[in-house]
Amino acid sequence: MTADGDCEKNNFQPDVSVFKKMVRMLELKRRQFFESDWKNCSRLIPRAQFNHLMLVRFSMPCNLGTIMSITGLTSAGASLFVDKLVNTGVLKREEDPNDRRNIVISVTEEGQQFLKEIDDRLDDFIYEYFAECSDEELKIIDSAMRIVCSKLDS
Prior knowledge:
Elements: H1 16-41, H2 47-56, H3 64-71, H4 75-87, E1 91-96, E2 99-107, H5 109-130, H6 135-153
Antiparallel strand pairs: 1-2
Helix pairs in contact: 3-4
């Protein structure tokens, strides 16, 4: 897109309201899933830590600054979040071999299994929404999702 919002390659103007609606709907469904799924995880971690873990999991390994940036937590809040998940065995802290002043935070094997179980339930949740789609619709949806992801990832 150019500075004035026009597409560079052609003159087609997509209806961004549809994209905004999709983003809102995806966020709502994501929140609904995690709200209901947290009950499966409540034996291990509190809701706030669960929500923050779902935000930072794809940025790990990382440092405290990254966690603060993604979650909006203060330094003390991010540190407390990491402390609690280290104590439950979901996360671990290690010295950065390239910078002794930096601490690398990553997911433990137990944490990876915990996240895999959540992902398996999320897969089932997503498949329910597409169960009524034809093969042709699924191919179109898959193609559109890949395009959107590649554009958002760049």
